[in-house]
Amino acid sequence: MHTRLLLISGLVVALVIPASGQLTYVDHSTGLNTPTMEGGDTELEFGDVDADGNVDIVSIGDHGSPYINSPQHGVMVWFGDGAGNWSVYQNGNFGYGGVALGDVNNDGLLDVGYGMHHNYSGNDFGNQILEVALGDGTGHNWTPWDNGLATNGETWGMFGTDFADVDNDGDLDLGSLSFGCCAGVHVYLNNYNGSWTQSFGFLGGNANDIFVFGDVNGDGLVDFATSSGYGTVYLGDGSGGFTLTDGNLPSSSSGLRGVALGDVNDDGRDEVSFVNSSGGLAVWTWIAHNSWQNLSGSLPGSGGFYFTQIADMDLDGHRDIVAFDPGEPSGLLVVYAGDGAGNWTQIASVSTPDCCDAAAFRAGTDADHNGYPDIVYVAEEDCSPWTGGTNRPRFYAEDSTPTESWIHPVYPRGGETFVAGSVRFVEWSAAVADPGPTNVSIELSRSGSEGPWLPVVAGVPDNGRYQWLLPAIMPSSDDCHLRYTLTTGAGDVYATTPAAFTIIGTAIPGDIDGDGDVDLSDLATLLAAYGACTGDADYNPDADLDGSGCVDLTDLAMLLANYGAGTP
After folding, report:
1. Contact call for residues 236 and 216 (beta carbons, < 8 A)
2. How far apart are CA 287 and CA 266, in angstroms?
3. DSSP string, 507-556
4. Cα(first)–Cα(last) distance of the chain, in Å?
5. pTM, whole model, 2 decimals?
6. Ranges of the chain with pLDDT below 70
7. Fewer Cβ atoms within 10 A, N terminus or C terminus of the chain?
């Protein structure tokens, strides 16, 4: 069981999230089969594109996009109503590829990045195989922001795509993997003016669709995992460079299938999951450069699996393995609960409609406001011998109904490392049992789970994700916590990250007492040492800001120049 706090009329009331045990899922795909798809791979992303608090699903389609035996075209947004119903809006004359969502220009609106094979557009929106376009908050209109992308030898097509701040400069950068052979892997830095510069990349090698950012070694510098035949996991150096660190990790000349990242052993570092060479499920954890440990345990070592995801599906605080086997004659969705120590127990098994291939898979986001994460996939249905079938997206919602409202921290949960001035995604899951509008506020403590609390953001939509731009100047702390407040019609519900995470900060010149701001306390400390030099009784080296050996006018000027500066 998991306890949360509810504040009603000044009273704090304890709520209990019921233990989930076995999970059940129901097909809530109304509207997802418009437009009809065709065949071939694609990628799906969850995100609240129109910021209405309901999670949407985004894709640029399969081989049928644009207008190839299918009405698919461009960026497709299936708007969710929070109850498992979907309505699509499409814009653009391109498609067949991967997609990513994030705010690349920090205007508070979700933007889209995508790698593709069918760059058939006659204008700037859709004429490159790798692009970024700015959203206007409606999910209908997109403005190209893509100069410099796909200019380093990429041909034929790109596919799996993701956003992260790889150089910790406060904006999202872009990574992508080739569509099959042979465009390779490429990471582009965001120049924050609509142009991009490659920081890392190579050509050649086969590929298997997936590219995802994460933090494998827990140093606060973004890494990535990808299904490239030239290697799977690359460690970042914080400036846009990456080094292959596969070592004894299993490999495939075609690229490992079903690659995903997530923390399964609760240490704040991402493990990698994938489908092994026998079609079974595998999870490995990074130990040191080129050294990995197998955590697969009792996961099935063989089968017909195509995709994996790592997510805490039962909200017990330990991330689980979610996998899809398209099988024949019917497909199979499974969830294996993790215990944080590499042990696995099957807690869900769902037979899906008859299918003969799988094209996309995503799990770990709650789209129907019951608090528990849901699943979406694309698979070939209506299959015939020799000719295959037709792709069909389906959304499976966890089937419980909340009797009380609560909020559950998803990321960070403890052990992670963030860097001041960088962008990171904060995630939560919330059950809403009360009528009326809801929103979420987030606060930061740098001094433990009891606060004091400083505002991060207030009143954002309850969609499970917030893009946090950490202040560029803030003190370091290894005892950071986030507190989440879910505001409902019945009151406020609180939850705090269960363990501490670290922020690597930067000092503010003049913050003598190291409390994160330059204030009267710092000024008083400097004035108490003013005029003193090394060897004097009143000399305070912390007040000697320029290290000259004396606390003098230069130090006072430095402090006054930053007086009032401070960060949450």
Report:
1. no
2. 14
3. PPTT-TT-SSB--HHHHHHHHHHTT-BTTSTT--GGG-TT-SSB--HHHH
4. 32
5. 0.91
6. 1-20, 567-568
7. N
